[in-house]
Amino acid sequence: METITRRNFLSKGAMLAGGTYPAMLALGMLKAAPAHAFNLTGSGNGKKIIILGGGLAGMTCAYELNKLGYSCTILEARERAGGRCWSVRNGTVNTETDKLTLTARFDEGQYFNAGPSRIPHNHQLTLHYCKEFNIPLQVYNNVNEGSYYFAEGKGPLSNKKIKVREVHNDIRGYMTELLAKSIDHGNLDTGLTKEDSEKVIEYLMAEGGLDPDKLYKASARRGYIENPGAGDKPGKIADPHKLTDMIQSGLMDPDFYNVAEYTYELQMTMFQAIGGMDQIAKALQKKVEPSLKLGAEVTNITNIDNGVKVTYKDAQGEHLLQGDICICTIPLPVLSNINNNFSGDVSRAIDYISYMQTGKIGLQFKRRFWEEDDHIYGGITHTNNDLTQIFYPSYDYLGKKGILLGYYNFNEKAQRTAELSYADREKLALQKGRLVHPQYDTEFESSFSVAWHKTKYNLGGWAVYSSETRKNQYPVLLKPDKQVYFAGEHLTYLNAWMAGAFESARSVVTAVHGRLTDQRVSYPTTTDKK
User: Fold this and answer.
1) SS3 state at 219
2) Measured between alpha carbons, how far is 385 from 257 in angstroms, rounded to an integer?
3) What is the pTM of this model?
4) Mean pLDDT of all residues in the chain?
5) d(CA 161, CA 209)
6) Are strands 380-383 and 325-328 parallel, antiparallel or unpaired?
7) Would you report the helix, strand and coil content of the chain in percent, each value rounded to 5?
8) Handedness of CA 315, 319, 325, 327 (dihedral sign)
9) Is 42 helix (H, G, I), strand (E, B) or coil?
């Protein structure tokens, strides 16, 4: 048996992506219980950890390291913590790189989530921290068959708001009809026996709502034009939309047709923090308050022989901070403009990994007309114009007022929108939104918009990897550059989700604690006899 230190063992494990966490399990330093609080052994003995960025990843690192006896300092450039976990309320301010400061003018109690708004039920670590911090949750209604599709264009169904359930059921019906007929006529080489083919056809008939002749005809699945009721009111069902009409109107275009419930992380049940997602950031901030320095903008990161030096500036001037280890959670587009002495591979990775261009606008209305008039409670309306999506709030149902997410767009649409002034963004949201909801004209009160790729300390929504950058740049940042470790959603396969921040934080805390805890273990060498 060769005796090596835990530090060396964990350093070797860290050379493989995700290797440190299993190594800690092997050493008995962490219980193999998913989504449970850390049970790490050993003490940090006051070693100094400098954490750059006070978002969820940075604060989680400090929270877990503080419990282990480390001395943490979090440097956050903004005057608030939470990073992209940010809910906009009355008095909220934001300054984009090419614009003046914008201040939200909403009624007290009204808000919208400018950053993350949803928690998938399969993100158990996020749910764990909500439970640990006593953050009450409520169901988030991500899927609503009663919302709309709206396609601008020249097709027969263009420029009309079409219920999601109509599109979903009509397309599903036509597709299953085509497939059932093909199987029935022996036109598909399925390799199935006659009995198996009959079972598949039975399934398709049930799935698509086909009649005994394997034809799709409208049913109550797609809703009513006259609802059933008491007495002689059986309800009236409209004819289905023609398949060619839906195709010609763009309702089957890949960029438009969206079945959210098919996506793993968007499948119900989803959750949200009651009172705004910033409740998660605020609860975490309370846990690390003594470690947190707000308004501290990092200007230089330098690895030295026995630690790391970080220079930052605040309202009092410039300061130098020295620590044993640095954990950097700063978004990569921002980090690329901070002086450092990182290796060439690390610098290249920071520069090459791109971030999503994305923006949102919150629109406050004096009346919740989407509920009162359209009977929409939560969910999303999809468009093919620059709005992309309209989100309906999944809280305060039947309340007096409310805030719609007037657009949530990405890539080129977000870029075009972001170039507009705040006033013109509002104008765009109202102009396009009234095509779906003409009530905009009489009910609108105020707006607040944010373009994340123009927001100073973000410069992007979340990391977006190509196959090349995931293969070549991503692994580089999973390893430390001497005394500097990197963490955040951008260093996971959970990009854009809060879970990415939490998972990355845990991974880096595990690696740092293993490195700084010098305890001896016995490890079999390759020369040992079996």
Assistant:
1) coil
2) 13
3) 0.90
4) 91
5) 23
6) unpaired
7) 35, 25, 40
8) positive
9) coil
The tokens describing 183, both together, are 């199987």
Q: Please check the confidence at residue 7 and state whether its pLDDT lies above 80.
A: no
Q: CA torsion angle for 360, 447, 458, 51 (degrees, to 10)?
A: -120
- Token pair recorded at residue 269: 């049940």
* Model pLDDT for residues 295-324, shown as the tens digit of each residue: 999 999 999 999 999 999 999 999 999 999
Confidence bin at 255 (pLDDT 50/70/90): low
How many residues are present in the chain?
530
DSSP single-letter state for residue 420: S
Residue of 509, 520, 517 lying closest to 43 (CA atoms) = 517
Find residue 359's DSSP bridge partners.
409, 451
Write phi, then psi, for 347 (nearest 5 degrees).
-60, -40
Flag whether pLDDT at 40 surpasses 60: yes
Whole-number Å distance between alpha carbons of 154 and 146: 24
Closest CA to 205 of 216, 196, 195, 191: 216
> Is residue 421 within 8 Å of 96, Cβ to Cβ?
no
**Who contacts 60 (Cβ-Cβ below 8 Å, separation ≥6)?**
129, 284, 501, 502, 505, 506, 509
Token pair 């320095």 is found at 293
Which tokens belong to 282?
């605020």
Could you tell me the two tokens for 29? 């330093």
Structure tokens given for 181: 């007929």
Specify whether the CB–CB gap between 173 and 216 falls below 8 A.
Answer: yes
Alpha-carbon gap, residue 327 to 72, rounded angstroms: 10
Q: Which among 282, 324, 323, 284 is positioned nearest to 60, based on CA atoms? A: 284
Q: What angle do CA 357, 359, 362 make, to 5 degrees?
A: 175
Average pLDDT rounded to a whole number, residues 25-36: 48
The token duo for 523 is 């490890």
CA distances from 251 to 27, 61, 254, 259, 413 (A): 55, 45, 9, 12, 19
Q: Check: CB of residue 446 under 8 Å from CB of residue 364.
A: yes
* Torsion angle defined by CA atoms of residues 223, 229, 231 and 237, in that order, rounded to the nearest 10 degrees: -10
Local structure of residue 79 (DSSP, 8 states)? S
